[in-house]
Design goal:
- The structure is a homodimer of 288-residue chains.
- Chain A is an alpha/beta fold.
- In chain A, 38% of the residues lie in helices and 21% in strands.
- The first copy, chain A, folds into 2 domains: 2-175, HUPs (Rossmann fold), CATH 3.40.50; 188-281, Pantoate-beta-alanine ligase, C-terminal domain (Pantoate--beta-alanine Ligase, Chain: A,domain 2, 2-Layer Sandwich), CATH 3.30.1300.
- The first copy, chain A, contains 10 helices and 10 strands.
- In chain A, the strands form 2 sheets. Chain A has a 6-stranded parallel β-sheet with strand order 1-4-3-2-6-7, sandwiched between helices.
- In chain A, α9 (203-216) packs antiparallel against α10.
């Protein structure tokens, strides 16, 4: 496995593979890898000749009060895990390499409507940062396929829409959320949790299970589903709800009555750690 | 010469050329071709194996009060001129092909700072429309080089910056403004001018000549240069100044004293026709 730090070197590698007509699968990450990331690599390995993983904590997608500086980083561990899983190249550029004028970045990619609610409302500018860095990485690595986890459901919809709207020549592939044995969605941010908080953090998944059970029993009123979810969270001392929402699975617009594929999504602060999770209701959107 | 109307067909052609390692030069236009466009084709022919010209009047870059509907169109004439000049493929998609959800386009590319002044101030949203369509076209055609005329000086700077900031794998090439025998910058919009207006329209070039002469004589005070330009325009009955500005040639920020490469730029309404022109002061930026 190779580690590449500069855009110029990455381009040389990409060009070489293009001449050889080797297809590239790309897994963008912010590092601190967990099984969720590695399941994306597994899928990418099955579908491509080469797998490139980027490890880049993208400052553009963090708000000024957010955890850019404290976001967990462990390149040696990531490198070992990536190698074991069969990654061919890690692309790990510096902030200066990706944003030579940082913190100025005159050009941004903006996706409207899809980013109005959910994490877009709580984290202004977040998805502009995501769309911009994904656009840059896709232009550098020029993969045939790029892989995203469904844990970041809104991110997946934003990236898919950007790719369609800007005609970026890549196929976006997704894989289901990986969970710990008890159901907690895997996230690099779980490392922030104290033992006590780790227990409370389960409330996100539990509330989704409650929602899903009610849905299966026939409940279609979003307000009732959300209220049931809210009650689960309210029972946990360290938990503070950021949002609980039921949205159309594609447009991400909030629904009052569930009539088609929808997603229950929530963000909850567990102590100082903000966690997100989601579940599809009515319709199998897990594979795409 | 081939004419391609769909993105899917364009992608097939591009893929074929990529496999053959044929380099593509791309000349984006809104049609109604003149010698300015054709000089870009000439340059593209010298530097590439294949030349693709797009002809697409991009609704996204027109304001609601602007001339999208009346913008001159003559595909047969364009097609003949393109063929004569050696274009290999004309890409002429419909609005529906480029913007399937038109007038909704959720994803846009925004370039800040460079677009604050000049045409960016007079035409809000114009450069977002330009950057978005150029980004889309570059993703569809994937050229090695793309060609832009210096008549649209601010557009060139915006596109160059977008390409750099988003790491789009293309080289932006420019060619000098083509002018009529009397000096009027060639523009598809010149066709709007009545015989009387055509005479008045020369004031843009004349004012730039006056500016340039004063500059050559040593004048470095932007206010004096602009005042001299203003006087030239004021002498023409059908002319109304939109802006006259002296800017840093790269950042496009207005300067008060000329200390480095600068550009004198202006937009003037001649009757109902808005025309632009520009000239570099102090430094040869004509070739790049």
């Amino acid at each position: 496995m190779e580690t590449i730090r500069t855009i110029a070197e990455m381009r040389r590698w990409v060009k070489e593979k293009a001449v050889q007509q080797r297809e590239i699968g790309f897994v963008p990450t912010m590092g601190y890898l967990h099984e969720g990331h590695l399941s994306l690599v597994d899928l990418a390995k099955k579908e491509n000749h080469e797998v490139v993983m980027s490890i880049f904590v993208n400052p553009l997608q963090f708000g000024p009060q957010e955890d850019y500086n404290t976001y967990p980083r462990d390149f040696d561990r990531d490198s070992r895990l990536a190698k074991e899983t069969g990654v061919d190249v890690i692309f790990a550029p510096s902030v200066e390499e990706m944003y030579p004028y940082y913190p100025r970045q005159l050009t941004t990619v903006q996706v409207s409507e899809l980013t109005d609610g959910l994490c877009g409302a709580s984290r202004p500018g977040h998805f502009t940062g995501v769309a911009t860095v994904v656009c840059k990485l896709l232009n550098i690595i020029q993969p045939q396929r790029a892989y995203f986890g469904q844990k970041d459901y809104q991110q997946v919809q934003v990236v898919k829409r950007m790719v369609k709207d800007l005609n970026i020549p890549v196929v976006i592939r997704t894989a289901p959320t990986k969970r710990e044995a008890d159901g907690l969605a895997m996230s690099s941010r779980n490392t922030y949790l104290s033992a006590r908080e780790r227990k409370d953090a389960l409330c996100l998944y539990e509330s989704l299970l409650v929602c899903s059970e009610l849905y299966e029993k026939g409940e279609r009123e979003a307000s009732r589903l959300k209220e049931a979810m809210r009650k689960v969270i309210a029972g946990r001392p360290s938990a503070a709800i950021d949002y609980i929402e039921i949205c159309d699975a594609e447009t991400l617009q909030p629904v009052t009555q569930i009539t088609g594929p929808s997603v229950a999504a929530l963000a909850v602060k567990i102590g100082r750690t903000r966690l997100i999770d989601n579940m599809i209701l009515g319709g199998n959107l897990n594979c795409s």
